[in-house]
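Quick question, first post here. What does this chain look like in 3D?
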Amino acid sequence: MKHGLLVGCVGLLVGIAVVGCKKTTCEKYADMEVKCGGIPEKEADLTRALAKGMCSESPPAGAESMSSMIKQEAACAEKTSDCAAYKTCVDAVKLPETK
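> Answer (accepted):
Ran it through. Tokens below.
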């Protein structure tokens, strides 16, 4: 009986850990920017941090259209982990017209 209970508890903990480790949309976006952008290895961590920050932060006044574009590109990263499909999706995103 103890063995069955232990296995059930371990399975529950593993299930919780997997759910807790799911990447956010902005983390996926940052990863795809590095993976698909030809970023040199020495610049990968900085590029990842900048991309994640630009995706996550509220835009400063006047940068709303750029933020909107980044959010749309992040949605592309949410849809695929393939660089060709990601690039096709990102290329279809247009910078909104400014007034």
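The chain is about 70% helix and 0% strand.
The CA atoms of residues 68 and 96 lie 8 Å apart.
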